[in-house]
Amino acid sequence: MATLTARVLPVPLRPGNGRQLVERNFLVYKRSWIVFVSGFFEPVFYLLSIGLGVAQLVGDFTLSDGTVIGYAAFVAPAMLASSAMNGAIFDSTYNIFFRMKYARLYDSMLATPLRPWDVATGEVTWALLRGACYSAMFILVMLVMGLVESWWALLALPASVLIGYAFAGAGMALTTFMRSWQDFEFVQLATIPMFLFSATFYPVETYPDWIRWLVEITPLYQGVALERAFTTGNVSWTLVINALYLVAMGTAGMYVASRRLGKLLLK
């Protein structure tokens, strides 16, 4: 009876052992690698359409340190951040909802020594590995197109992983509150405006003051600020604040997700 009670109660935050879940996802996608690879092409097509089309119609941009860059070099890091967000959100919402509500995958997992925190860390780790693959290929495309202005770009990949961590943790936490597929409309309602207005296609200084304030507190803006600073070399100490924001968001999301999984599945 004591053992059953311990299994029902959500476990406290502790180092997880989600390796088995990562291995399981790897084996699944190994058989459907086309689905895995397809996630790379959407942001690249965006970048090519801008770099070869729109950029020809827009002038150069002057950064805060006086550096002048082309429009494609301005937009590319924002596309990188958006790609990290979209990949993490898709993996941590749609996929996890299906596994939890229909495949009942987590019910069987929690019948083993795995705990809710292990499930959360395993799913988020897989989302980060998948996002890191996409980001690395995207950065390579940027490099080939001449859109990398600084050696600081070596930190663009870790920054992408950090963005993925923030959105994967938050996405998984939100998924545990969703009741049906219709609830995913709210995911799009949040991500599409962030994609369009988080200084993605034009500088945040173009907004009125009150709108600029709203933009600067959104999570995607933190990621765009990191990626743009690293790829252009316009680095400052304020990036630490952006990074801490994303770390806090991801960690809080994972903790909420683990507790919610414990309440939903271990009852």
Automatic annotation (TrEMBL):
PANTHER family attached here?
Answer: NODULATION PROTEIN J (PTHR43229)
Q: Where are the transmembrane segments?
A: 33-56, 68-90, 124-145, 151-174, 186-204, 235-257
Assign the protein's first listed, main location to one coarse class. Answer: membrane
Location of this chain's protein in the cell: Cell membrane; Membrane
The family assignment reads: Belongs to the ABC-2 integral membrane protein family.
**Ranges of residues in domain ABC transmembrane type-2:** 34-264
Which Pfam families does the entry mention?
A: ABC2_membrane
Task: Tell me yes or no: is Membrane among this UniProt entry's keywords.
Answer: yes
Keywords on record: Antibiotic resistance, Cell membrane, Membrane, Transmembrane, Transmembrane helix, Transport
Q: What is this protein called?
A: Transport permease protein
Q: Which InterPro entries match?
A: ABC2_TM, ABC2_TM_bact-type, ABC_2_transport, Nod_factor_ABC_transporter
Species this chain originates from? Kribbella orskensis
**What PROSITE patterns does the entry give?**
ABC_TM2
Membrane topology (UniProt): Multi-pass membrane protein
